[in-house]
């Protein structure tokens, strides 16, 4: 299998961590979807990463689709619970974490535009989404060790990648002081080998 992605995308990082946790071998091909000569649209008509090219040449895109496929490839160390209620709650965590990333990425891209063309209203709306997302995550995590309680799951990976992206792109957002339980979770995750090996850079 081949994974196409960048070193800065939190969605690519989530996929790479799941691959590591499931002990699935793959080739990693670096592609920046914004480059004019990018081959990303050849595999994903939406022009986004990550993209997983399966052994038969079929491409999978959207990190949520890819990680579910990967988790089902190997029944050992399931990251998405099988029971319906727990499964839905873990996927809910993933949706929340990805939503934080969506809003943060939208802010980042808007700030890259020439300053006179930037929409302060748009940036503010995305900032509000990030703030509310962090508030919800901190509330739902409460005093639990992991998002799903005492078991490490995809929920923790997704939230850890979202927090890592904020730390990478938005050092001015002081979520660590505001939400110490999120800071504790992030610190535990960032000490694990899959997180260390996929730390965003670029």
From TrEMBL:
UniProt entry keywords in alphabetical sequence: Transferase
Highest taxon above the source species: Bacteria
Domain GST C-terminal stretches: 83-202
Origin species: Nitrosospira briensis
Protein name stated in the entry: Glutathione S-transferase
GO terms for MF: glutathione transferase activity; maleylacetoacetate isomerase activity
Signal peptide: none
Entry keyword annotation includes Transferase: yes
């Amino acid at each position: 299998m081949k994974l196409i992605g960048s070193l800065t995308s939190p969605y690519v990082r989530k996929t790479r961590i799941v691959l590591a946790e499931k002990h699935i071998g793959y080739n990693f091909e670096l592609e920046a979807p914004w480059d004019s000569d990018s081959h990303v649209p050849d595999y994903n008509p939406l022009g986004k990463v990550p993209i997983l090219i399966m052994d038969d040449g079929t491409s999978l895109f959207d990190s949520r689709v890819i990680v579910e496929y990967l988790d089902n490839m190997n029944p050992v160390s399931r990251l998405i619970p099988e029971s319906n209620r727990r499964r839905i709650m873990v996927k809910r965590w993933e949706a929340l974490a990805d939503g934080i990333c969506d809003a943060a990425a939208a802010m980042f891209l808007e700030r890259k535009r020439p300053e006179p063309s930037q929409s302060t209203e748009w940036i503010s709306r995305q900032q509000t989404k990030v703030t509310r997302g962090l508030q919800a995550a901190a509330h739902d995590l409460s005093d639990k060790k992991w998002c799903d309680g005492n078991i490490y799951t995809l929920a923790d990976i997704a939230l850890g990648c979202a927090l890592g992206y904020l730390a990478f792109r938005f050092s001015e957002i002081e979520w660590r002081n505001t939400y110490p339980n999120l800071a504790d979770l992030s610190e535990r995750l960032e000490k694990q080998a899959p997180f260390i090996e996929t730390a965003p850079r670029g």
